[in-house]
Specification:
- With 658 residues, this protein is of the alpha/beta class.
- It has 19 helices and 29 strands.
- It has a ten-stranded mixed beta sheet with strand order 12-13-14-15-16-21-20-19-17-18. The protein has a five-stranded parallel beta sheet with strand order 4-3-5-6-7, sandwiched between helices.
- α10 links the parallel β10 (275-277) and β11.
- Mean pLDDT is 90; it is low at 1-11 and 195-204.
Length: 658
């Protein structure tokens, strides 16, 4: 059978692209086959079983010990990966992990992370954790997920993980076992405090065992549990939120993750000839699903660039030399990493193997896109992904060039709508035509199964079941989604909605600017006024006044012209490389408060050495601390006048006398 009569069945075989996707018509052609016929794989375990059978001795994972291209890597084949996944799942099964039990993971970039992920999903529910979260938040997440086992890195060299694991041990009621993953190349017995192979625990550390020792004792050719994993079974709990936000646990089904892998292969054209460097953290959906599961489902080689990934300065400095040595066919990184790579000279490195450059997680600035293409000859293709959709929603395929902000086509079998915002900035029921900007809504086979806490689901969905993404965008004449930002990042000045991307694109065009982000600074009259923070290209110089004039000249709408440009040394980031705007909003609020305090002090004649200290506490509070001894009799009137001056601001402030 050929053409539309062809019935596709991927059961027992790895995923392969069925046709080159270059247009919306190609997406529609894929959809002509019913999904239950096009995709028959039921679980992530089945993906690895199929890939192991198909690719055997071919390299699946390559781990770089260092960022030095001359150093020898560690490689695992597809057959070895499958065998170790079997052993890991069987070990967890013997430790009492069942389909409803969570396996928490606190690891850096390493080969064993893939055993924890996919062995964890074959035995129970895997729960990857951000190691930069506080102990308190990690305990809350593990308690909410009812984690039974914690797989942790046996060293403090990466974010103090082992010490953190030991502190968490007694604080999670459901936790029975901590499995220590030895750092790569650790000498046998170096840990000192851990059990011998198979013993399970020691008197000194009850419930703590060696991951590799217990795993090696298990069968490598099958799941001893005999588990038949259904597509609706929960595979993972992924937490959302930044390093200081309030994280929530999102549930992924096996079917959702499998669909992400299959659809990514179709639209991005992945196949066994591909090689990628995965620098995304493996506690984040981008690193786990589109960058790992999808790649491995198609037989690609995935390179892990050291335990620190792209935070490793040596990796970043040698990136193009590593490309020359390992010949990746694709480059994928968040915009902030692309901005850093733009400062790394090629120095003659051959990067011709890269045929596809891709980014996501944040909107790409036109200037960075143009600079990357100018320097390296690589057009940056954008995608949209989110935790609530198992890592991917839209993809710009290879061979389809779009302007910055264009994130490509919705995946096959996915529904997408753009709706107007209501007066509170939420999704309304009024659908908008192509070309008009509103909030992006989705329904899809990879939609998550809701949050673990039902209370968190209230704002996630519309009344009729669409995922309210919070992303702002429009659909162009080719059927591609174009993003402008997040609804929560809109700057609202006297009721006027200002898109921060307009300001960021204007300032980002300045040759001295490396990164920039516009936020609203609190204002007693307008509610918010636009300000923009910037970091400069290493070695470049520009004054704040110069940058402000440059930006204002390129922003047409008067309300959107920023009130100030603030140059800072380092842009606050999340652990996946997104600019962390809540921190910038707090910094902007602190500047407003400091200006008001300075004015009051001037009126009362407070000398410069006795000025109160102003600092933000977290994201939602700015504190003013008055040194009573320094200001003497002025302490009481100073506090009263500062409180009066700050009262009209739409931001929480607190004045303290010490």
């Amino acid at each position: 059978m050929t053409g539309n009569d062809k019935k596709i069945n991927t059961g027992g075989a790895p995923f392969r692209p069925l046709l080159p996707v270059r247009s919306l018509a190609d997406i529609r052609k894929l959809e002509e086959t019913p999904l239950d016929e096009a995709l028959t794989v039921r679980s992530t375990y089945e993906i690895f079983r199929n890939a192991g059978a198909a690719f055997g001795g071919k390299t699946a994972l390559t781990f770089l010990r260092t960022g030095n291209p001359a150093d020898a890597p560690i490689r695992w084949s597809y057959a070895e990966l499958l065998a170790r996944i079997h052993q890991t799942a069987n070990m967890l099964h013997t430790l009492g992990v069942g389909p409803q039990d969570a396996v928490a993971v606190l690891l850096p970039g390493c080969l064993e992370y893939h055993l924890a992920l996919w062995g964890g999903e074959a035995a129970g529910i895997v729960q990857p954790l951000n190691p930069l979260l506080t102990d308190e938040k990690l305990v809350a997440l593990m308690t909410a997920g009812r984690a039974k086992v914690l797989i942790a890195y046996g060293s403090d060299s990466e974010s103090g993980m082992w010490s953190k694991a030991m502190r968490l041990r007694g604080q999670v009621p459901t936790l029975t076992t901590v499995l220590r993953v030895a750092p790569h190349d650790e000498a046998p017995g170096a840990a000192g405090t851990l059990p011998e192979a198979g013993s399970g625990s020691t008197g000194a550390l009850p419930g703590v065992a060696d991951f590799d020792a217990l795993r090696a004792a298990q069968p490598a050719d099958r799941l001893v549990s005999g588990r038949d994993i259904a597509p609706t079974d929960i595979a993972a709990y992924f937490h959302t939120g930044g390093t200081t936000g309030a994280p929530k646990l999102a549930r992924h089904s096996h079917g959702a993750q499998v669909f992400t892998a299959w659809a990514s292969v179709q639209v991005a054209g992945m196949n066994e000839e591909g090689i990628s460097i995965n620098g995304y953290p493996l506690f984040h959906v981008a690193g786990v699903l589109p960058a790992s599961l999808a790649s491995l489902s198609a037989g690609m080689e995935v390179i892990i660039p050291t335990t620190s990934l792209l935070r490793n300065k040596e990796v970043l400095a040698n990136y193009w030399k590593l490309v020359e040595k390992y010949r990746p066919t694709s480059l994928s990184a968040v915009p902030t990493v692309l901005a850093a790579l733009a400062n790394v000279p090629l120095n003659g490195a051959d990067i011709s193997s890269i045929g596809y450059c891709r980014t996501g997680a944040a909107v790409l600035s036109p200037e960075l896109a143009a600079r990357f293409e100018r320097l390296f000859g690589l057009h940056v293709h954008e995608s949209l992904g989110m935790t609530e959709m198992a890592g991917i929603s839209t993809i710009t395929p290879p061979g389809v060039d779009g302007p910055a902000g264009c994130v490509g086509f919705a995946l096959p079998y996915m529904q997408m709508r753009i709706v107007a915002l209501d007066e509170n900035g939420n999704a309304s029921e009024r659908e908008l035509p192509p070309g008009e900007q509103g909030m992006v809504l989705f329904k899809s086979p990879n939609l998550f199964s809701g949050f673990v806490d039902p209370a968190d689901n209230a704002k996630a969905f519309t009344a009729d079941g669409w995922l309210a993404t919070g992303d702002l965008g429009w659909i162009d004449s080719d059927g591609r989604l174009n993003l402008s930002g997040r609804s929560k990042d809109l700057i609202i000045r006297s009721g006027h909605n200002i898109d921060p991307k307009v300001i960021e694109d204007a300032l980002g065009a300045h040759p001295a600017v490396q990164l920039c982000a516009a936020v609203g600074a609190p204002d007693a009259y307008a509610g918010e006024l636009p300000v923009v923070f910037a970091t400069l290209v290493p070695g470049a110089s520009a004054t704040e006044d110069e940058l402000l004039a440059f930006t204002a000249a390129r922003v047409d709408e008067a309300p959107a012209k920023p009130k100030s440009v603030i140059v800072i040394e380092h842009m606050p980031m999340t652990n996946v490389g997104k600019i962390y705007k809540p921190e910038l909003r707090a910094m902007a609020a602190s500047r407003v408060v400091a200006a008001a305090v300075e004015q009051v002090c001037g009126e009362l004649g407070v000398n410069a050495g006795a000025m109160p200290r102003v600092a933000h506490q977290g994201e939602r509070l700015v504190q003013v601390r008055i040194d009573a001894a320094a200001v003497g009799a002025l302490a009481a009137p100073l506090r009263q006048q500062i409180e009066t001056a700050l009262a009209p601001l739409p931001f929480k402030t607190q004045v303290l006398t010490e």
